[in-house]
Amino acid sequence: xxxxxxxxxxxxxxxxxxxxxxxxxxxxxxxxxxxxxxxxxxxxxxxxxxxxxxxxxxxxxxxxxxxxxxxxxxxxxxxxxxxxxxxxxxxxxxxxxxxxxxxxxxxxxxxxxxxxxxxxxxxxxxxxxxxxxxxxxxxxxxxxxxxxxxxxxxxxxxxxxxxxxxxxxxxxxxxxxxxxxxxxxxxxxxxxxxxxxxxxxxxxxxxxxxxxxxxxxxxxxxxxxxxxxxxxxxxxxxxxxxxxxxxxxxxxxxxxxxxxxxxxxxxxxxxxxxxxxxxxxxxxxxxxxxxxxxxxxxxxxxxxxxxxxxxxxxxxxxxxxxxxxxxxxxxxxxxxxxxxxxxxxxxxxxxxxx
Length: 354
Ligand SMILES: NC(=O)c1ccc[n+]([C@@H]2O[C@H](COP(=O)([O-])OP(=O)(O)OC[C@H]3O[C@@H](n4cnc5c(N)ncnc54)[C@H](O)[C@@H]3O)[C@@H](O)[C@H]2O)c1
Fold this sequence. Notes:
Layout: E1 2-8, E2 11-18, H1 22-29, E3 34-39, H2 45-48, E4 56-60, H3 69-81, E5 89-94, H4 96-108, E6 114-119, H5 122-128, E7 133-138, E8 141-148, E9 153-157, H6 166-182, H7 185-193, H8 195-199, H9 203-223, H10 239-248, H11 255-272, H12 280-290, H13 297-300, H14 306-313, E10 319-320, E11 323-329, E12 335-341, H15 342-353
Parallel strand pairs: 2-9, 3-4, 3-5, 5-6, 6-9
Antiparallel strand pairs: 1-2, 7-8, 10-11, 11-12
The chain binds nicotinamide-adenine-dinucleotide.
């Protein structure tokens, strides 16, 4: 088992990574009432069998539709009816959508009840369950209501990946490649030479990439916990173009696939303005292909008007007036923020998506 501990703003977060570790961690930690907010696709037996008293449970389906304020109210109603106090626990057991909604409820009930995240997807383990951002969607706008609230502990138990569908598994790996490409050349090299082991779900290899990703994410969050500096934006590499692809296709393109294309496009933009070293784009394309991820709109089999895509990008939260702050890889494993004007963006996307 690997442990990562980081002090973020005013709290301490401990992340445990390993296989079959839930029991060991929860037995030591839990000392109060528990509400498990759980994904229906995930078996709760490892959690429930550990607890001394019978937990309350809310079971939610898969998909982003659970990121709804009514679900938050359902969680809060149960906590309130059952007399939960601040030192009791919410255990969020599921993918990124579930940890986002349960985390938001945890952050506002009594101004914060203890939160234990047990992510059950790769994306949850390397990204969503870490870093304290929680949110629900509202009136069709993604993540528009939310909070910053760090989980007390995160248990990334790889046993949950046994049942994760391949498409979800591969999509989550796009975020791991993102860390390698912008922050961690060692990780990038490891991903390049161990694709077969990782795709075959060799748990030693997966433990290593989840561990490196966790360190990368928390070290960035530590420096910019409230996303106020131009530091945390690196976690959004590939996401300006990726989110736009998701939005214009009505979220028909899965997140991991969209940001894979986004990463290539944003690196091509970087090469065009002379920030990204020559050769980075080709290496990036190769590694994405190795993992079965798409690298162009053509491979996604979609046709989108560039102006429509650009309009979707203008809704990016990294936009400030006529500019967007893009995180751009300089060489593999390092990056820089670049303030790109809307006009420059227009001609740049023509090159990368045309
Ligand atoms: N808070 C953050 O910092 C942050 C960062 C990145 C993404 N997110 C959010 O995360 C969400 C995406 O997360 P995701 O990719 O985990 O998708 P998801 O939560 O929608 O889960 C994907 C699917 O996998 C199923 N599933 C989950 N675990 C499973 C398991 N172990 N076995 C079988 N099926 C399982 C779910 O039921 C669902 O159908 C988005 O809402 C995104 O906005 C948040």
